[in-house]
């Protein structure tokens, strides 16, 4: 009788004298990506909010856009005090010079805007007295004030478009991650400032354009003006002022109510633009300090 033997496998003993072959595969790195600085993360979040605001159709209230822009400028102001800001800006003198120029032009534009709004508010107060007295002789001065602010806003729009058209130089190539993030934040703030400023200046220019015209000319004007450029709160006041004497007391009160609403809206825009102006000045001072340290 033949016994049944189980099959076994035998392996040759390892020869310790044989050299070890080098590994051909790559070991996985356990290093983590560089974490973003909290100030840069805050700046990135502010810019994301501004992108969402500018892409809305029609755009959200200008007061909200100005508030978001002010926050982004303040975040940039804080980021300019970081150590990498000095190395980035000193390594790119053309970028630094362009930034100083752009912030100066933006600040000048908002300074002019403040003066224009102040003059318009004075005309606004005067015309409300004229409405109560049904004195149409004062209406012409108010209409001139609206035309004047229309022209000034058009000029400011051209200024901002020039800054946006020229663009801004990029930071140095192959920068470390923190420097690249800071450069992207700076470029984003300049772009956002131009975007919000155009919405503000162009919106006021379109809303304060002449309204006492023929229907054909008004239709041509409306076709050239985007609907989302005009500001609803600034509309429907001028045309009715020319018929004050024919208005009943109830109609006069309605016009006064709309004028008061307009006054409140202008004050809100004025307050937001003043904060943006101060933030622009502060950011430019920080930029100068960073370059001179």
Short description:
The chain contains nine helices and no strands. The chain has helices spanning 38-55, 62-79, 83-91, 93-133, 139-166, 177-207, 215-224, 238-241, 249-292.
Structural notes for this entry:
It is a single chain. The protein is mainly alpha-helical. It has one domain (39-50, 59-169, 200-292). The protein is built from 9 helices and no strands. It has helices spanning 38-55, 62-79, 83-91, 93-133, 139-166, 177-207, 215-224, 238-241, 249-292. The longest helix has 44 residues, at 249-292. One of its GO terms (biological process) is root development. InterPro entries: BPS1_pln.
Q: Helix share of residues? A: 55-70%
Q: How much of the sequence is in beta strands?
A: under 5%
pLDDT < 50 runs, ≥5 residues: 4-12, 18-33, 212-228
* Estimated structural class: mainly alpha
- SS elements, strand count: 0
Q: Distance N terminus to C terminus?
A: 101 Å
Write down the overall geometry.
elongated
Q: Give Rg in angstroms.
A: 31 Å
Q: How would you characterize the largest beta sheet?
A: none
Helix count equals 9
The helix/strand order is HHHHHHHHH
């Amino acid at each position: 009788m033949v016994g049944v033997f189980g099959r076994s496998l035998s392996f040759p003993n390892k020869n310790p004298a044989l050299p070890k072959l080098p590994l051909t595969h790559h070991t996985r790195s356990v290093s983590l990506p560089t974490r973003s600085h909290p100030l840069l993360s805050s700046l990135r979040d502010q810019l994301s909010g501004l992108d969402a605001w500018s892409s809305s159709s029609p755009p959200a209230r200008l007061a909200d856009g100005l508030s978001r822009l002010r926050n982004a400028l303040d975040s940039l102001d804080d980021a300019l005090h970081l150590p990498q800001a000095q190395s980035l800006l000193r390594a790119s003198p053309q970028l630094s010079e362009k930034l100083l120029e752009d912030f100066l032009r933006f600040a000048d534009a908002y300074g002019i805007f403040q003066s224009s709004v102040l003059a318009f508010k004075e005309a606004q107060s005067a015309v409300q007295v004229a409405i109560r007295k049904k004195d149409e002789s004062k209406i012409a001065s108010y209409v001139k004030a609206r035309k004047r602010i229309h022209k000034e806003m058009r000029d400011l729009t051209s200024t901002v478009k020039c800054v946006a058209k020229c663009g801004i130089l990029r930071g140095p190539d192959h920068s470390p991650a923190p420097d690249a993030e800071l450069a992207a934040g700076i470029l984003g703030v300049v772009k956002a400032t131009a975007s919000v400023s155009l919405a503000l200046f162009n919106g006021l220019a379109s809303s304060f354009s002449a309204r006492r015209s023929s229907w054909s000319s008004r239709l041509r004007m409306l076709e050239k003006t985007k609907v989302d450029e005009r500001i609803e709160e600034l509309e429907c006041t001028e045309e009715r002022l020319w018929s004050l004497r024919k208005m009943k007391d109830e109609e006069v009160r309605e016009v006064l109510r709309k004028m008061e609403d307009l006054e409140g809206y202008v004050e809100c825009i004025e307050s937001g633009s003043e904060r943006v102006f101060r933030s622009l000045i502060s950011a430019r001072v920080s930029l100068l300090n960073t370059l001179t340290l």
